[in-house]
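Moderator note: this is an archived Q&A kept for reference. The question asked for a predicted structure of one protein chain; the sequence and the answer are reproduced below.
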Amino acid sequence: GSVAVSLCLAPLKAAIAGFATIVIKSAIYGA
């Protein structure tokens, strides 16, 4: 059901957000 999908997508979205944050910080401080 949709609940199971939400539970599966939540960690995925968190991982993507965390990865994006690292990439942005690397672009700012690593430039």
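Archived answer notes: Residues 16 and 22 are 10 Å apart (CA to CA).
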